[in-house]
Design a protein that fits this description.
25% of the residues lie in helices and 17% in strands. By secondary structure, the chain is an alpha/beta fold. Keywords: Glycosidase, Hydrolase, Signal.
């Protein structure tokens, strides 16, 4: 059995689960600093290694237009596939969880170490082309893979994690590189999740003991890995995590980002999140995540992303997951509508098995998501938040918008519940004599009238259920309105 002695824990490192820094809504500043305004900053300008300069970088337009991404939590933690990616920490950390300690005692021999899981991370059924096919069919435009979580195991043949990477032990292959090739064959963009810290790495623990006045871990592990990832795989997204215990000055975050934006091979296309040091989350970076499963349900002034899970209770594959633990398509569609209406992207997570399989229930949900977006994508992709995010008279209605070259506004009303009457009343849109109302995926125009006071009454014909364009949410398109 492969095992990692205590003295070698610097070569082995961490389990994680996207623990985000807590955020407050008032910390979220400006989409009035909107993408259009951010492009006023000269593209050719070199960025200085400080937040005042870095935060002025325009967000590359592809990211805002994409709206939907897939998140993948995959690593050695996928072998026990129990509770989540923090199992190692909850088992051997300073405050162990009794349920985890008892689980390990019941199921593994007394001298079993976390490192003994690594050879069982086999990925023998891993077919990156099949994964890419599923992700393409989902309607997602980018995919973010955990290249390294808090356990420290690297899913690529790095030079900086000897015998604790996917080429040296376990799969014996470059999991990152194989997926990158498959994604780009499908026209999808690649994102690299990377944890700055590692649970039990001795150099990190020593730096922490020194109150982060030393940077041995950063200089020999964290930064070399980040530069290697960028130069080797050229990711369009750097999804940083594991930052919260130390300030950004310890991580040398601004120096890395200045290089990334100025001189890296992805300088013109890369986007970054906000997890670059204690106090940075929801304040600094390319876009804001604020906290895991961040769904503010009100319009945000700055671009944000909701990273959330298909499994309600974990980021990783769980062997004991029940069907009721998986979000329904009604819930998935509602989340898409809420997030995009408020100005965000949805990054929805599925956890592959240790064998390299996207389990059938996750595949079904992703393909259903693509089926819905295939009909209603016009009201999602490349849209902007409208003046109002939801309706004043009818519940479960969320709005997005587009503006034409003539500055005419098209509004998309996303209905999460089909009306029980023959009239759909919307209080927010102000129609004009030229207004047209259609339903995405359905032929013909709908008759309408001005609603008493304000708003619009849309007449609904008797449409048989099997003639509706989709099953879970419906998007009405309103053109030539006055607001």
């Amino acid at each position: 059995m492969f095992s990692v002695p205590q003295t070698c824990l610097g070569l082995v490192v961490f389990v994680g689960a996207l623990v985000a820094s807590a955020a407050s809504n008032d910390a979220v500043s400006t989409w009035d600093f909107e993408i259009s305004e951010r492009y006023d900053w000269e593209v050719s300008k070199r960025y200085e290694p400080n937040w005042a300069s870095l935060d002025k970088r325009p967000l590359p337009s592809w990211y805002d237009e994409a709206k939907i991404g897939i998140f993948l939590h995959w690593g050695v933690f996928s072998v026990p596939s129990y509770e989540g990616a923090w199992l190692w920490y909850w088992w051997k950390g300073p405050q162990p969880r009794l349920s985890i300690v008892e689980f390990m005692a019941r199921n593994y021999k007394p001298d079993f170490t976390y490192g003994d899981f690594a050879p069982q991370f086999t990925a023998e059924f891993y077919q990156p082309a099949r994964w890419a096919d599923i992700f393409k069919a989902s309607g997602a435009k980018y995919v973010v893979l955990t290249t390294k979580h808090h356990e420290g195991f690297c899913n690529w043949p790095t030079k900086y994690s000897w015998n604790w990477n996917s080429m040296d032990v376990g799969p014996k292959r470059d999991l990152v590189g194989d997926l990158v090739t498959a994604l780009r064959d499908k026209g999808l963009k690649f994102g690299a999740y990377h944890s700055l810290f590692e649970f039990f790495h001795p150099l990190y623990l020593q730096d922490k003991k020194n109150n982060f006045t030393t940077q041995d871990f950063v200089r020999t592990k964290t930064l070399p890995e980040l530069y290697e990832l960028v130069n080797t795989y050229k990711p369009e997204v750097i999804w940083s995590d594991g930052d919260w215990e130390a300030p950004d000055t310890y991580w040398n975050s601004t120096e890395f980002l200045a290089w990334l934006y100025n001189d890296s091979p992805v300088k013109d296309v890369v986007v970054t999140n906000d997890r670059w040091g204690a106090g940075c989350t929801c304040h600094h970076g390319g876009y804001l995540t604020c906290q895991d499963k961040y769904n503010p349900k009100k319009k945000q002034n700055r671009k944000f992303e909701d990273s959330t899970t298909m499994d309600k209770y974990a980021w990783t594959h769980r062997r004991n997951m029940r069907l009721s633990d998986v979000h329904s398509m009604e819930q998935v569609v509602a989340t898409i509508a809420e997030i995009v209406s408020c100005g965000g992207n949805l990054l929805i997570n599925v956890g592959p098995t240790k064998d390299g399989v996207i389990i059938p229930i996750f595949e079904e949900r992703l393909r259903q998501m693509g089926e819905w977006l295939g009909v209603n994508g016009e009201g999602i992709y490349k849209t902007r938040p409208w003046t109002f995010v939801n309706d004043s008279l009818t519940e479960d209605v969320w709005f997005t918008s587009k503006s034409s070259a003539s500055r005419d506004t098209t509004v998309y009303a996303i209905l999460l519940t089909w009306p029980t009457t023959s009239v759909l009343t919307l209080g927010r849109p102000s129609p004009t004599a030229d207004t047209k109302v259609t339903l995405l995926g359905y032929s013909g125009e709908f008759k309408w009238a001005h609603h008493t006071g304000s708003g619009i009454d849309i007449a609904l014909p008797k449409i048989p259920f099997n003639k509706l364009p989709c099953k879970w949410g419906w998007v009405f398109k309103l053109t030539m309105i006055s607001n």
